[in-house]
Design brief:
Length: about 550
C-alpha cells in the first residue's frame, strides 16, 4: 500500500516524521540536561568552596586560627563557620536566606527560603591531627598545630634511630610532643616523622593522630541559590547550540538516505543520459526501474530514444568510413592525372594554372580522406594503441622543435618540460596529438606572440599544457571545437589548410590512452589546452 504512494508523498512523509521526532527529542533533552547540569554544577561549586576553606582553619597552640585566605563569599557561595555549640563564629548568611536547618556532616540539602531554592552543604572539622616541629639538638618545641584529617597510614619506621645531626632520637622527639600536648601514646598514632634542616638547625617534623582532639569540633556551612550560577545557563546554551547542528545533520543524513532510496531510479536515469552526451557510448540502457510506474515509463522512452540514436550514429560512422574508402580511388586518379599533365610540355599558362589548382585541391582532399579514415577507425574501436613505455618528455621536445622549424611566424616558443617522464603510450598517436595541439597554437597565435608548452608530473598524473595568447575561442564555440569539421574561423582555417578534424582526433587519441582533455579560452586573449594522463591509464585502457 505504502509503495504505491507517489514519490513526493513518501519523501515528504518520512522527512516530516523524522524532523518532528528530532525536534521533540531535542527540546526534551535540552530541558532535562539543562536543569540537571545547572544543579550539578552548583552543587559541585558549593562543595569545592567549603572543602577549600576547611584547609584554611587550624588550631595553633590551643587557639582557633582562621587564615586570611579563607573566602567567606566566593562564586555565589556564602560560607559560615559554627562552633560545636552551633554559634556563628565567622561569616554570615546571604541577605534574606537565614535558616535554622540543622547541621549535617557531608550532605547536600535543598531548602526553600522565602520562595527561593537554596543548596546547603555542611562539613565538620575534627582537630585530631597534630603537627609538631622540635629542635633535634635540644628538644625544644618550635611550633605546634592541629587540623582535620580524613584518613591516615601509620608510620612504620624505627623510632629508636637518631636523625642526622640530631642529639635526640625520633622516639624522644615523639615523647616531647606528647608531653607538650598532654597526650599519652595509647591514644595516639604516629603518621609521619622526618628530619629536615632549618637555618642549619636539625629539626624533627612529626604528625600524629589522636582520638583526643586538640580543639572542639568546628562546622563549616556553605549556602547558595540553586540558580545563582550564571555559567550554568551558558553551559545549557552552548549545549543546545552544539546539539542543534548535530540533530540537523542527523536529519539531513536520514533525509538524504530516504531521498536516495526513493530517487534511485531517477539517479540511474540521469547517469545513463550523462554518459551518452558525448555520443561515445550509446549502448547503455536503464534497468531496474520497477519501483515506480512513472519512472519505468520514462526509462522505457529513454531506452527507445537511445536505440534510435545508436542506430543513427552507427550508420553515420559506417557512412564516413565507406565514403572515405570509395573516394580514395577517384581522388588518387585525379591526383595522378593532374600530376601527369603538369609534367607535359605545351600547355598554355591558363591550362597549367587549372591543373595546378586541381592538383592542390585533390591533394587536400586526399589528406582529408586519410584523416577521415583514421578518425572513423578510432570511433569504431578498430584502432588499438600499440602501447610501450616511452619517454614522453623527449617526444614532446622533438615535436615542438619540428614545428618551430616549419612555422615561420614571429612567435616565441616557451618550453617548460620536465625531463624523463615515462608513459605507456602509442608513440605515433601521441606524436599526432602533440603535433595537432602545438600546430593549432602556432596557427592561431598572434604575430609576435608566444606559445607556452609545459609537461609536468604531479603524483600519479602527467599533465601536458599548450597555451597561447592568440585569437582565442568564443564561449559559445568552446564546446563545439571537439565536433568533426567544426571551424570557428572558417575563412582562416581554409586558408591555413585546416580540415576541422585536428581537435576531435586529439580527443579520440586521449580517450584511447585513458586520458582527459579539455580547453579553456577567452576570445582575443588566448587558449589553454590541457591533457591529463594517468600513469597506468594507457595500459588499463588497452586491456
Amino acid at each position: 500500500m505504502f509503495k504505491r504512494k507517489s514519490l513526493r508523498f513518501r519523501i515528504n512523509l518520512w522527512y516530516t516524521v523524522l524532523i518532528c521526532f528530532l525536534s521533540v527529542l531535542l527540546i526534551v533533552l535540552i530541558s532535562v540536561l539543562g536543569r540537571n547540569a545547572q544543579h550539578a554544577e552548583a552543587q559541585q561549586n558549593l562543595i569545592r568552596n567549603v572543602e577549600r576553606n576547611i584547609d584554611e582553619i587550624e588550631a595553633e597552640n590551643g587557639l582557633l586560627d582562621i587564615e586570611s585566605d579563607f573566602a567567606f563569599n566566593n562564586d555565589g557561595v556564602s560560607v559560615i563557620v559554627f562552633s560545636s555549640a552551633g554559634e556563628i563564629i565567622g561569616g554570615s548568611y546571604p541577605e534574606g536566606a537565614k535558616t535554622d536547618e540543622p547541621l549535617e556532616n557531608g550532605r547536600i540539602k535543598s531548602v526553600e527560603i522565602d520562595g527561593a531554592e537554596y543548596f546547603i552543604y555542611d562539613s565538620m572539622i575534627e582537630f585530631s591531627k597534630y603537627e609538631y616541629k622540635i629542635n633535634g639538638e635540644n628538644g625544644e618545641v618550635f611550633s605546634s598545630e592541629s587540623e582535620a584529617i580524613d584518613s591516615f597510614i601509620p608510620f612504620e619506621g624505627n623510632l629508636d634511630e637518631v636523625g642526622e645531626d640530631c642529639d635526640i632520637s625520633y622516639r624522644e622527639a615523639f615523647e616531647i610532643a606528647l608531653e607538650y600536648s598532654g597526650l599519652t601514646e595509647d591514644v595516639t598514632t604516629l603518621i609521619m616523622a622526618r628530619v629536615y634542616e632549618y637555618y642549619d638547625i636539625p629539626m624533627y617534623e612529626l604528625e600524629f593522630y589522636s582520638s583526643e582532639k586538640a580543639y572542639d569540633d568546628i562546622w563549616v556551612r556553605g549556602i547558595m541559590k540553586a540558580d545563582s550560577e550564571d555559567g550554568i545557563w551558558d553551559t545549557i546554551t552552548v549545549l543546545a547550540l552544539l546539539l542543534l547542528p548535530a540533530f540537523i545533520a542527523l536529519g539531513a543524513v536520514f533525509g538524504d538516505r530516504i531521498a536516495k532510496n526513493a530517487l534511485a531510479p531517477l539517479k540511474q536515469l540521469n547517469e545513463t543520459v550523462s554518459k551518452t552526451q558525448s555520443a561515445d557510448d550509446l549502448t547503455k540502457r536503464i534497468t531496474d526501474t520497477d519501483s515506480d510506474p512513472d519512472i519505468r515509463s520514462l526509462a522505457d522512452n529513454f531506452n527507445k530514444m537511445f536505440s534510435r540514436l545508436q542506430a543513427s550514429f552507427e550508420a553515420q560512422k559506417h557512412f564516413t568510413s565507406d565514403a572515405s574508402h570509395e573516394l580514395r580511388t577517384p581522388v588518387a586518379v585525379v591526383l595522378a592525372e593532374s600530376e601527369y599533365q603538369l609534367g607535359e610540355e605545351g600547355h598554355s599558362e591558363e591550362v597549367r594554372e587549372s591543373f595546378e589548382t586541381i592538383y592542390k585541391q585533390a591533394n587536400s582532399m586526399q589528406r582529408l580522406i586519410s584523416q577521415l579514415l583514421n578518425f572513423a577507425k578510432m570511433e569504431q574501436g578498430s584502432v588499438k594503441p600499440d602501447l610501450a613505455l616511452e619517454n614522453l618528455s623527449e617526444l614532446v621536445e622533438s615535436v615542438s622543435d619540428d614545428i618551430g622549424r616549419v612555422h615561420k611566424k614571429n612567435i616565441k616558443l616557451i618550453k617548460d618540460i620536465e625531463p624523463n617522464i615515462m608513459l605507456d603510450m602509442d608513440v605515433g598517436l601521441i606524436t599526432r596529438l602533440c603535433d595537432n595541439l602545438i600546430s593549432n597554437a602556432v596557427r592561431y597565435g598572434r604575430e609576435g606572440g608566444y606559445v607556452r608548452l609545459s609537461l609536468k608530473k604531479e603524483s600519479e598524473k602527467i599533465i601536458l599544457k599548450v597555451e597561447d595568447n592568440g585569437i582565442g575561442i568564443s564561449k559559445e564555440n568552446l564546446e563545439k571545437i571537439w565536433l568533426r569539421f567544426f571551424r570557428a574561423d572558417k575563412a582562416r582555417s581554409r586558408e591555413e589548410g585546416c580540415s576541422g578534424l585536428g581537435l576531435p582526433m586529439v580527443k579520440q587519441i586521449a580517450l584511447l590512452h585513458g586520458a582527459e582533455v579539455f580547453a579553456e579560452s577567452e576570445e582575443n586573449k588566448g587558449s589553454i589546452f590541457t591533457v591529463i594522463f594517468n600513469q597506468n591509464s594507457g595500459k588499463n585502457q588497452n586491456q
